[in-house]
Amino acid sequence: LNVRNAPKVTAGAGFNYTVIIGNGELSFIGRWSYVSRVDGNLLNQTYSKVPPRNDISASISYEWDKFSVTVFGKNLLNERFEAPTIIQPLFATGTIGPGFSWGIEIGGEF
Predict the structure, then answer these.
(1) Burial category of 72 from C-beta neighbours within 10 Å (exposed 0-12, middle 13-18, buried 19 and up)
(2) What are the residues facing 109 on neighbouring strands?
(3) Which of 9, 17, 30, 57 is most enclosed, with most CB atoms within 10 A?
(4) Mean pLDDT of 48-65
(5) φ and ψ at residue 95, rounded to 5 degrees
């Protein structure tokens, strides 16, 4: 039997590139992560397997004085997955992994 919720392989890589522009810094940040197939059930039953997945996220930010503006995107490949949970013999439920999302963050120190 495989250990429940323990992938055999996880991997990740990232980069951070910063350049000075005017009175601040412009940063480009990228991240990739991979999680192999996961068995979600103690008995490793077929219906409880969560497929392998990739996640690519990125952001661009500008920081100056005590302020910052960041535009970010998470799960840029929009890979979604379902993690089922079986409670025998009563019912089953599942969780859907989040899809693509993006946002703008504005910050300041006072």
Answers:
(1) middle
(2) none
(3) 57
(4) 93
(5) -120, 130
Token reading at 98: 């989040």
- Closest among 39, 40, 35 to 52, alpha carbons compared: 35
From CA 103, how far away is CA 59, in angstroms rounded?
A: 10
- Give the list of residues 6+ apart from residue 87 with CB closer than 8 angstroms, or none: 93
Bridge partners (DSSP) listed for residue 71: 60, 104
pLDDT at 55: 94
Q: What is the reported pLDDT for 4?
A: 79
pTM of the model as a whole = 0.78
SS (H, E, C) 50-97: ECCEEEEEEEEEEEECCEEEEEEEECCCCCCCEEEEEECCCEEEEEEC
